Amino acid sequence: MGTPRRPTxxxxxxxxxxxxxxxxxxxxxxxxxxxxxxxKIEPAADKGCDxxxxxxxxxxxxxxxxxxxxxxxxxxxxxxxxxxGLVWVPExxxxxxxxxxxxxxxxxxxxxxxxxxxxxxxxxxxxxxxWTARVAEAVEAFKETQRHPGRFSEGEVRERRWKRNRExxxxxxxxxxxxxxxxxxxxxxxxxxx
Length: 194
What we know:
mainly alpha; two-stranded antiparallel ribbon; 10% strand
């Protein structure tokens, strides 16, 4: 406005028995500092205060997108196999560009086949192979203690938490053992273990 600027560092707030204060520094945490884009004096923001207007700009922290997966639950295996049989297979590759072009073709073909026969869904824990009815029941029982904390004793909460953790652990172990057994019989499943 029309008032003159006070000298830099002049006390702007007297705090009695505590140390007087003035604003001359901007502190930024280490995580935020890595996202700092700009720290500069911005004359356009001056409203006649005794401090220089300093503008700090940070990069936005964008939320990570959840990975989409394909659900083949309702796909007809015979129709998928029929569609896969239509893939074009060249007789020979002569150049690196031909190999790269074919890789792009295959990627597009597989995506088209997946879109035609599968259903894209967002991943969640219930889509895991180890998620069983017993796990769901134990998880729901523990969630009930979280929704209504006064209704359950500390011992009941501890017991339900233990049961949930135990069911998840057993289900994951059983799923892994089953995968190992199937991979021993069908070597094409080995890629799932990588």
